[in-house]
Design brief:
Aspartate Aminotransferase, domain 1; 14 helices; 43% helix; homodimer; alpha/beta
Chain lengths: 397, 397
């Protein structure tokens, strides 16, 4: 008599969670230091010092009613203005504070967008490999979840397949760059190509097709590579952002939606976002974190740790014979598994106390995700075990 | 091409918001101290000192990764255990930490519950007058919103009308005690009567009918009146709680759902709640406030201010000839309007700089809500204006 669909969602753990739970048990058995848990994308570096310093200052100096009271549903104007100013300066964009909506993180930003845009029969396309919850969020908004497989060599969109997935019911496309699980960045040429295809398809079908850009890893980029800011390239775009990864605050739930002011129906879209937020029960984003954001924009936790981890791991694993697209961002390495069955590979890795996530959780196969957001010491200690795994598969001697 | 339903929700301000916005303009015109704004149910007393002291301590003493990291979706076990222990001790209840789910406030608790229980064709009953967002939340979960008008004299359920509203499609009933907008409390006899009716109807229709209890005002009770704890009276009950009002933290979004362990399918219900939370994009409740709660359970902001306000206002208004059910809790006075048209009454009140909310926003008519969560000084200063309004209506001389 309750929703079986919801009960199933509540009971079914993701593969990631299964492995994480296994890791907890295994650590209890053989000691935490002997299990190499690369399962979870949880930031491993602390929040920058300014975060706790500013929080403490805000608590000490702000009137309680103002500090802890309701903000407007779309968020404090001062916060939205600071975000728009910051992005406009750093990305040469033209965001409008009155088209920014503060959310309890990127997940909420996504569900609100999907509920705002979805009409009956609508389809939303994602590129695989994809963050598993996209399916849950898109189907939760009653849209059809459509997968467009990426090119297996580059992990970038396969444009011909992509075109074939678009039809009269296509309402939106989700992109996620830097990508979870692949670490791949969609550089300017990719964004331009996607935008061109969508503009043509919009003309063909006579209605907007939105790009919903999920950007929790925007600043987790190494080697100075530039992540193009979507609103500069495509009018019908919605940016979903979270401060979870850049400030190591994933449990605090603070992010935003930015509606591209160049969208022709931007204010209607913003109204629908406000309506969807209201309908889903998001009264406002946590007030204290809204107050924090203007004071810490541009700050990041120590991202150099992730870069060092990536460099060590990528170098060693490719030396051992594993194949992997070089990841330019996020904190994931996505290796081709030496046997086609990713789940069997992940099981074998367990024998060497290496916990990695098979691609099946990302709507793909033949790959495994290594979340290298752990200590550099753990990375170094894990290398001999990866070598043994490579030997087991005959990749090296 | 976007959801017009959502756009309408986003654009349509509630009557409360309209009046609040009018108040802001009027204050700019004639000075803040000359406008008596009773429109918004925003706590007017600061959070108790322990809140900011504990927050500061938690920030100083907790490892950053633990403090700001993801909690499990259902919330930190230590927080859920503390809540269960506290309620079990103070309410003689039998809550189970493994059936408590932490939420970003009561609104999220309600939307999650409605999504967890609703199947196609389902109906959910609320008693009018009701908190306006119930309609938005229930319809957002695709259930039919059914209103059961209360008795106009007592503002308690009219049991015969209530029975007539229950049918084979009835999935749940929402109660809200202490009540917004009436301040009325459902005492033990009311809860027992509702439970008896529902048990009979469950038998008649052969399926559970849940009570969803919205309890943000649980502790805002004066004169030592006891609010019965629902799970002690009715098996198929879900408690939706928020710390917003008791701790004056409405902008921070922290609350919970408690599934009654006596429910026969409690663990299935809990799974559906976890699934609905996931589907709607609630990753976890803000971590820092989850850490705070165990340290401040049982604390309240200075509720004596609300009691004093209520006493002064109730005494004066009834002396002036207004009629009002004596409110035992929350921070609202719900007066009968001297003319049947509540909106016309609220307009006339504006002439005396009194901003009150007509009952139409609460699915009712012939009443107006006075939110007395303002300073006691404002209450005292407003009395001559209420008297003038009463004279205008010929209620007093």
């Amino acid at each position: 008599m309750i929703s079986q669909e919801m009960a199933k969602l509540g009971k079914k753990r993701s593969i990631i969670r299964e492995i994480f739970e296994y890791g907890k048990i295994r650590k209890a058995e053989i000691g935490e230091e002997n299990v190499f848990d690369f399962s979870i994308g949880n930031p491993s570096v602390p929040a920058p010092d300014c975060v706790n310093a500013e929080l403490t200052k805000i608590i000490a100096e702000t009137d309680s009613i103002k500090l802890h009271g309701y903000t407007s549903a779309q968020g404090d104007y001062i916060t939205r203005k600071a975000i728009a100013d910051f992005i406009n300066k750093t990305e040469n964009a033209s965001l409008d504070p009155n088209l920014i909506y503060m959310t309890v993180g990127a997940a909420a930003a996504l569900t609100i967008c999907f509920h705002a845009i979805t009409l009956p029969q609508d389809e939303i396309i994602v590129f695989s490999p994809y963050f598993a919850e996209y399916k849950v969020f898109i189907e939760g908004a009653n849209a059809k979840f459509v997968v467009s497989p990426s090119d297996n060599k580059t992990l970038l969109p396969d444009y011909e397949i992509f075109k074939s997935k678009i039809n009269a019911n296509t309402k939106a496309v989700v992109i996620n760059s830097p990508n979870n699980p692949s670490g791949v960045i969609y550089k300017e040429d990719v964004i331009i190509k996607l935008a061109d295809i969508l503009r043509e398809k919009q003309k063909e079908y006579g209605h907007p097709i939105y790009i919903v850009s999920d950007e929790p890893y925007r600043e987790l980029v190494y080697d100075g590579i530039k992540v193009p800011f979507l609103t500069n390239y495509y009018e019908n775009s919605l940016v979903c952002y979270s401060f979870s990864k850049v400030l190591s605050l994933p449990g605090e739930r603070i992010g935003y939606i930015a509606v591209n002011p160049k969208m022709s129906d931007a204010s209607e879209m913003y109204a629908a976002i406000c309506g969807a937020g209201r309908s889903l029960g998001f009264i406002c984003a946590p007030s204290i974190f809204q107050k924090l954001i203007p004071n810490v924009l541009g700050q990041t936790s120590d991202i150099s740790v992730y870069k060092e981890n990536r460099d060590i791991l990528y170098k060693a694993l490719t030396e051992y014979g594993f194949r992997c697209v070089h990841p330019d961002g996020a904190f994931y390495l996505y290796i081709e598994t030496p046997e086609p069955n990713s789940i069997a590979f992940a099981e074998k890795a367990k024998k060497y106390e290496l916990l990695v996530v098979p691609a099946d959780d990302f709507g793909s196969s033949g790959f495994a995700r290594i979340a290298y957001c752990v200590t550099t010491e753990q990375i170094k200690k894990s290398l001999p075990y990866f070598k043994k795994l490579a030997i087991d598969y005959g990749l090296t001697k």
